[in-house]
Amino acid sequence: MLVKLQPITTSKPSTAYIKIRTGSKGGGLSNTGYWGIPVQNKQEYQLSVILQSESINSANQAPQVTVQLESQDRRTVYAAAQVKDVSSSWNHSKIMLTSNGTDPTAQLTLYVHDQHVELSIRMLSLFPAENVKGNVLQPFRTDILDYLKDLKPRYVRMPGGCYVEGVSLQDAYWWKPSVGSIQERPGHYNGPWQYWSTDGLGVFEYFQLAEALDAEPVWVINNGISHTYSVPAENIWPLVQDALDLIEFVTGPADSEWGGLRAKMGRPNPWPLNYFAIGNEDCGKPWYVENYIAFFSAIRSRYPHMRLISNCDMEVHAPTDLWDWHMYTNSQNMFDRRHDFDHTPPGKQVFASEYAVFDDSPGHPVQFPGNVRAAVAEAGFMTGVERNSQQVAMAAFAPLLSHWNDRACPHNMIIFDNRRVFGTASYYVQKLFSEFQGVSYIDTTVTTPEHDPRDHGIAASATCQDEDCTQLAFKVVNFAPEAQNVDVELLGLHSSPAKMTVTVLNSTNPMSENSFDEPYLVVPRKENVTFSGPASTVTLPPFSLTVTTLDISRQPSMSISQA
Length: 563
What we know:
This protein is of the alpha+beta class. The chain has nine helices and 34 strands. Strands 12, 15, 16, 17, 18, 19, 20 and 21 form an eight-stranded mixed beta sheet that branches. Strands 25-27-28-33-30-31 form a six-stranded antiparallel beta sheet, covered by helices on one side. The longest helix has 16 residues, at 372-387.
């Protein structure tokens, strides 16, 4: 229901709330969070609750209200506290709760002890105390954040793709309702992925995340196009202005209108923003070209430094800084498409922002959450991305995160539940390519007998790890069910390298994958391999990624052939 007589804020005259009407034994409500609230012994939690009651008795006494962290059968109470300052006006209370036990599936319960009274609740939020230190809430789980940091991402594309579009514009993501204090955010239904978003993770928090990861933020804006409807170009200006307002919120000075709101939220200094994507997978839809041009012209005029990303190569239809490229396919096709960017014309730049293996074979989806064969196929594709790094400006596996109990996609990088997290085999492939990305590409060739177009499942790339190329890293992929011997030759290297390390990711079972019970079943491991002189024969395990680093004195080129 809506409260119009006593709104919480003057900026929002109507506010949704939950009303409790107690009976002869009191009443209350319980919240189990997402498949249970995990509590740890001696861990502190901060409860934030906004409530009011008009059931004040003749003695001016308000109803007695307590909150508890308890087991779902309500037999065990881990922490309890009384909510004070209950009155006929909205009051915002913050209460610290310290758990006296550990339970991965606890619940939070609010009890109203009085008979035949009414209590209205506007907001109820619970965070570990470590997340609420200081003036600005840090809403990220530290264990998941650590997994992200270990990837050392160069950029973060946010807030998403289809999430931004919506099935209709009514369930698309709009940034302005996601800023301001948490209690002022109405939330929205996320149509494409079919869940309610509180928008507690809004623009402000996304840029907190990019900063925490030391990653370049890439923002995706809705350009008036959803999965089912397109705003005609003559009506697009309000959304163009909305995009300009967002850029001001992120980058504007604290004395500007939207930069002032950011400062009020606890961030007086602006964030950097150099990349801005106009829409998601919208090429070919009505009004995309016209709407894109309107956004491009307005943003380029006001922010000439901004690199603007289209949903495809606009060719002669409109200017293109970078164009977005997505691919979800089966393992064999993923490996085969490592040459997709070999013939990208000079001057064109690709943003490969979404790719993953979704099918083991055509029509047969990968079993959640992935497998080694899929990850190695992606590694093969990534050698092509690395080889064409002058044309492929940025690239990323997607989707990034999945809750174990909410499986929107068959293959993901990081899996979590309410208390645990692990990386899939694809996570470790991405981690290896990030760690050994290097600063420049070294010419690499792969030759096989009979000039097999699939190179017998062998793919490779190599990079200098520093400007002087005193350290070389080369990646060799074996996308085959059997071990293969390959001859590796470093052209221009006349003696054995001074130092060498080899890291291998593989499994004897191509369907193997990590899990909560075995989170490190498939992880990279270091091996000792002798590399004798400028040429050596190397045995590659089945379905494997091998990364070798060499300390050298001069930049070579590489040749890899089947032994």
